[in-house]
Amino acid sequence: MTLSSAAGPRYGGHTALPAMALALRCLRPLPPLLLRSAPPVPRGLPRAPGGCPAPLPLPGGCSRCAQHLLLSRQLATKKAKGKGQSQAKVNINAALVEDIINLEETSEDMHAVIEALKEDFSRNLSVRTSPGALDHITVVTKDGKFPLNQLGQISQKSPQLLTVNMTSFPESTAAAAKAIRESGMNLNPEVDGTVIRVPVPKVTREHRESLAKLAKQATNKSKEALRKVRSKSITQVKKSKNKVSEDTIWLLEKQIQQMADEAAAEMDKLLAAKTKELLG
To answer: Ribosome recycling factor domain spans which residues (predicted)?
Structure first.
């Protein structure tokens, strides 16, 4: 028996393969085809939070899923930063966390502290004396509290002298003089009938340095008010720890701290500019 006859009959000069071998050869391409027809499996997506009505990859998923996905991506971006590299700023969409905290309100509260410091610098800490410098002084009368410029007419007679004419409200003259004296502006008013004479002391180096110290104290006081706003906001966030993930809480705390740091930096700039103005 020859090798050809042992292998089987020939067709057209070629040896016929056994039926089983031929079937196996035909089936070999099927697994890749089946794999290509299967739906793609998403990789690297965060899991949906417990109780979510729709999985994350599907369009139209619930808002809770969208919030979780965005915050997870932000967290992953921050954690991906290597050591020695500056971390990206946290910037959470306020609309996604409005049921936890109102970040816009927190920002407004911090901005209000900055504006109060600016106003304090402008009104109380200036080496340039003008009639407007006395406008903000509050006078306590039997009828209530009123700004000095509503009770008397303030004018400047010379660079070293301001006057307040109390003719319209003569009964408040003594109270107005007391308010000027206790304003912290280092003024010693003199009452002459219904006219209050306010000598303006010459600006000395010592007075400038004193004003610079007051500016520093005012800034520290404002930073304390800023810390209270930050602490109040973080406390509010922590109240939701049973409803949202730890990552969400962590990101919100970072966002609030970042806002507070930026506000404090703005205060430092204001202090530096005011100190330069006062000391010359």
So the answer is: 117-279
